[in-house]
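USER:
Class, as today's exercise, take the chain set out below, and explain how the chain folds.
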Amino acid sequence: MTSIRKKILVIDDDPDLGYLLEKFLSGKGYGVTYSNSGKKGLLRFSETEFDAVICDYRLGDMEGIDVLKKMIHIRPDIKVLVITGYSDIKTAVDVIKAGAFDYITKPLIPDEVLMVLDKAFQTTASMSNALAVAADKHQPEHIDDSPGILYSAIETNTELYKQLLLVAPTNYSVIVYGESGTGKEIMARAIHQHSNRRNQPFVALDCGTLSKELAGSELFGHVKGSFTGALNDKKGLFEIANGGTVFLDEVANLPGEVQALLLRVIQERMVKRIGGNTATPIDIRVIVASNEKLPDACRNGKFREDLYHRFNEFSMNLPPLRERQKEIPLFASFFLDQTNKELGRDIEGFDEDVMNVFLLYKWPGNLREFRNVVRRAALLTKEGKVKKEVLPWEMMQVQGPATIVTTLPAGEFSSGLKNSASKAEYEMIMKVLKEVNYNKTKAAEVLKIDRKTLYNKIRNFES
């Protein structure tokens, strides 16, 4: 009998999909609990210590992002995977910013779900090990992925690379601006690796989802009994990173009280744990990131102006992927090499049609989305080159920089779709999906079929 490794909560208002996930993951050794609504899922989550959650973004009673935020408020370390459609990529980016570990696109591929889930647990284990090493041995934190991504994402852009080499050897604080998924943390790690602090810890914190109490504890540490839940003394990230670099992502989201404490730490180079009386001297470099301009946040009263000026010794702006077309083939090759190693495959590359789609697509999720697309396509490709048929069907609607077409060339239809009736059915489904903004639940209602039938028809069109 297979032993249960981890407990998974699946939340989806489609019982067929929920049943399939429950059956598949249970067969892989996971303990699975299924809930058919957001409210029921939150109730189960409050009653049981789950290791991960798989939640559909579009639920009947509430939005998946609201479920995500409530869960992260209860347990900031929980790994949440959000199910979405490729027409909802901007939504997927939003849930990542809200604290989701990753997103999975429909129609679901069981092996992809398993791969992302396993990656979530591997990331948890590697982060725990890295922080333990950094705290106990004062060694650099392990960098997720190979260092090659630093050069794939940065060295290909001459201006960015010049700025990196200019600022890295200094002790300047740096602000990195960029849309979600453009590689702000990658840039911060690259600056650290090119600096004199490269053999000291690099410690990162996402400030976007932290409460005032949790943010203060994570940054500065706390003493036992300083607040409810403080059962032991704890080092903060500034103590752990002493001698190295602290990276604060989405820094504009820090609560005002924490911003005031942070300003004092940076000014005095001393850190005092929450509830403590003793200040510890620190030697750290601070790199922060934001997808909104901090001067604007200052004008809106969201961010302290004096803290902004402390950070603003040097700033960099990472362009979105849609403005880096010349680099797209390099990124595609790099992500495919990574995935080949991960899956034990030997996929040769990409068909010309696939690369054309990559070049025309807008990539709202930037590098993060690009990497997920390549990983998904590689998973569906057994040998040879990645072909257009394995790309998400929404991506294949791209015909020009801003053009959406509602039909595919005749050659793209499988043998079962070559007759005019099947083609008409395809066009009708595409028309309805477009009218309801690709909400498959609403599309199924308009077409008077259930969601399972709609998913099956879409899969048939893709095959």
